């Protein structure tokens, strides 16, 4: 089944041209202003959205804000269209939560490549999160932002030497926006959430019983055995050595 792409553009010629170029690869949806784009995104749940910034009724920034604040649409990747050299708009768009930019005028193969990469990235993150879900069940939420952050911790930082500014940069967000969004979703700071994620992973590994406490602590990037033991006991109420005794 073809992926669905919503193009939001008030220039009718450009809208028609983009739809014509992409319709062999995707099921196309169209909207002629930001408000219509928001409504169609909520109704049809496209796999990806491409939106101009400057539009009547509601701008591309408005579209990003509304969709990224909605639990049912926040996972949808959004590419904003911007003019060459509009660096300030690009930065502003990332701060609003946009996932990528395409500079106008653009080549079709560049646009297609960026779309494919975003869709593939989201699919890979979904698979990673699904595998991680059993060790993170206590949160009761499968939010794409959380899965993205966890995937970076696991695959990019290998559980060690990570910082929130670095994670925020890799997620195309400011540290302050990442802090706000994670706090809104979980009630925790990003560092607290990721440390809890590591501790849940540690508990899962210890319950399997095929690794020593030292091996688990080292694999998950804890600074020392004593720190790991203290953090583990604070979270679960027992020492790591007692995990398989309950």
Report on this model:
The protein is of the alpha/beta class and 246 residues long. It contains eleven helices and five strands, in the order E-H-E-H-E-H-E-H-E-H-H-H-H-H-H-H. The chain has helices spanning 12-22, 34-44, 60-68, 87-96, 108-132, 144-156, 164-170, 175-186, 190-208, 213-219, 225-236; strands at 4-8, 27-31, 48-52, 78-83, 100-104. The protein has a five-stranded parallel β-sheet with strand order 2-1-3-4-5, sandwiched between helices. Helix 2 (34-44) runs parallel beside helix 3 (60-68) and helix 5 (108-132) crosses helix 6 (144-156). The longest helix has 25 residues, at 108-132. 28% of the residues are buried.
In short:
This protein has 246 residues and is α/β, with parallel strands linked by helices.
Strand content: 5-15%
Q: Based on the structure given, which CATH architecture of the largest domain is correct?
A: Orthogonal Bundle
Spatial strand sequence of the major β-sheet: 2-1-3-4-5
Percent range of helical residues: 55-70%
Series of secondary-structure elements, N-terminal to C-terminal = EHEHEHEHEHHHHHHH
CATH superfamily of the largest domain: Homeodomain-like
Quantity of strands, as a count = 5
**Average pLDDT metric:** 84
The CATH class designation of the largest domain is Mainly Alpha
Characteristic key phrases:
alpha/beta; Rossmann fold; Arc Repressor Mutant, subunit A; 11 helices; elongated
List the helices and strands and how they pair.
Elements: E1 4-8, H1 12-22, E2 27-31, H2 34-44, E3 48-52, H3 60-68, E4 78-83, H4 87-96, E5 100-104, H5 108-132, H6 144-156, H7 164-170, H8 175-186, H9 190-208, H10 213-219, H11 225-236
Helix pairs in contact: 2-3, 5-6
């Amino acid at each position: 089944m073809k992926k669905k792409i919503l193009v939001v553009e008030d220039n009718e010629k450009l809208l028609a041209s983009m739809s014509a170029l992409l319709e062999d690869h995707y099921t196309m949806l169209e909207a002629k202003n930001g408000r219509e784009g928001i409504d169609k995104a909520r109704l049809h749940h496209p796999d990806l959205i491409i939106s101009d910034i400057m539009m009547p009724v509601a701008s591309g920034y408005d579209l990003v804000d509304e969709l990224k604040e909605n639990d049912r649409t926040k996972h949808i990747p959004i590419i904003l269209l911007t003019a060459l050299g509009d660096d300030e708009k690009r930065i502003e768009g990332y701060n609003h939560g946009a996932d990528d930019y395409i500079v106008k005028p653009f080549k079709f193969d560049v646009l297609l490549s960026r779309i494919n990469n975003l869709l593939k990235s989201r699919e890979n993150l979904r698979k990673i999160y699904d595998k991680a879900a059993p060790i993170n069940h206590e949160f009761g939420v499968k939010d794409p932002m959380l899965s993205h952050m966890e995937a970076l911790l696991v695959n990019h930082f290998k559980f060690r030497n990570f910082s929130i500014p670095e994670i925020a940069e890799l997620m195309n967000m400011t540290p302050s926006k990442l802090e706000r969004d994670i706090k809104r979703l979980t009630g925790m700071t990003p560092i607290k959430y990721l440390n809890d994620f590591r501790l849940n992973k540690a508990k899962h590994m210890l319950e399997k019983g095929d690794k020593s406490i030292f091996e688990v602590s080292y694999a998950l990037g804890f600074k020392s055995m004593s720190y790991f033991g203290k953090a583990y006991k604070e979270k679960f109420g027992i020492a790591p050595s007692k995990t398989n005794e309950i």
